[in-house]
Amino acid sequence: MRRTAPGQGLTGLPGDGAVVIDVHSHYVPAGWPDLGEGQPWLRVDSEREAMIMVGATEFRPVRPNAWDAGVRLADMDDDGVTRQVVSPTPLFFGYELPGARAAKVARIFNDLALEICQPSQGRLLPFAQVPLQDTDAACRELDRCRESGHLGVEIGNHVGDRDLDDEGVVTFLQHAASIGMPVFVHPWDMPTSPRLDRWMARWLTGMPAETHLSVLAMILGGAFDRLPDSLRICFAHGGGSFAFWLGRLENAWHRRGDLIAKSQLPPSAYVGRFSVDSVVFEPSALRLLVDTLGASQVILGSDYPYPLGERPVGQVVHRSDSLSDHDRAAILHGNAERFLGLP
To answer: 167-189, pLDDT tens digit by residue?
Structure first.
């Protein structure tokens, strides 16, 4: 039976009626079937404590805010958040698996995401995952998830050595655009080395670098030239360092076109083709995003419930004196409504 689409029958909204939509949060189920050797599993330590494991290695502690709709909704009420997009935790993508096995993993987590969001009366909006290494299987799973009630899809920023300009990935993005499913791009599988294995450096430098690289791949690799304007795509963590270094990229496109000018237009011509979230923490960084990409391309995100996320949600937007009331409202909800296709 088709489930009620998220956002329909929405009741009991918090606060004073101001709409706030968070497009960047993650879930972890309270348990899942055995995924096979070397795949993630959950070690339950108590009613309120669990540990994501990969083999015998501890990956990340999690609490009920990762799977309990009641806890999430209470936190949303505290922060004045109306709706929240709930996306997979990238560890579970399974891009290293054979396509058929990854498709099975995607089905398991996508169905569990619906169960987590179901009690929320449409306030929690599920995003799916797909076996992106197998284009046909990814398109089939996206179709299934759209019919089941998912509002969009989260993908990793690369599949092994294949960036987002890879033909198979572009074909998937074309399909997402054709059926009106928004795409949220999240960095994952960051490089590791002795220099990056200190101070959470893989997360503090590797994640922004991965996101920056994936935006470059879509521009310089000509992906945007092959994709329709109707594609709604958003990059996590403020698009990494892209906004700060757009001038360097533009300069290189004009001065070293023999090496990088593969796109039909210079890089600055594509800034209206994608959005970024607001997880940059400082008003000065948010101002740079707005000045570089435009307020219409920045959408509120939090990275809830993880420690490197923003709490209270949206504080960087509320603290940014440089924003007009119109731009603040666009970032808090208007841009998300357009991205998500909400009425």
So the answer is: 999 999 999 999 999 999 998 77
Amino acid identity, position 36: G
pTM of the full predicted structure?
A: 0.92
Q: What is the pLDDT of residues 81-131, one digit of tens each?
A: 999 999 999 999 999 999 999 999 999 999 999 999 999 999 999 999 999
Q: Rounded to 5 degrees, what angle do the CA atoms 215, 221, 224 make? A: 65
Q: How many CB atoms lie within 10 A of CB 158?
A: 21
**Average pLDDT over all residues of the chain:** 91
Task: Give the integer Cα–Cα distance in Å for 212 and 205.
Answer: 11
CA distance 162 to 155: 13
Question: CA angle at residue 95 from 113 to 277, to 5 degrees?
Answer: 60
* 9 CB neighbour count, 10 Å cutoff: 9
Q: What single letter denotes the amino acid at residue 47?
A: E
CB proximity list for 161: less than 8 A, separation 6 or greater? none
- What's the distance, CA 215 to chain centroid? 14
Instruction: Give yes or no for residue 289 having a pLDDT over 80.
Output: yes
| Ramachandran quadrant class, 187 (left: phi over 0; alpha: psi -120 to 50; beta: rest) | beta
Taking the CA of residue 69 as centre, how many other CA atoms within 13 Å lie in the half-sphere pointing to its CB? 17
The closest of 74, 39, 37 to 54, measured between CA atoms, is: 39
DSSP-assigned states of every residue in 111-167: HHHHHHHGGGTTSEEEEE---TTSHHHHHHHHHHHHHHT--EEEEES-BTTB-TTSH
Q: DSSP 3-state assignment of 284?
A: helix
- Let me know: does 240 contact 211? Beta carbons within 8 Å: yes
C-beta of residue 41 within 8 angstroms of C-beta of residue 35: yes
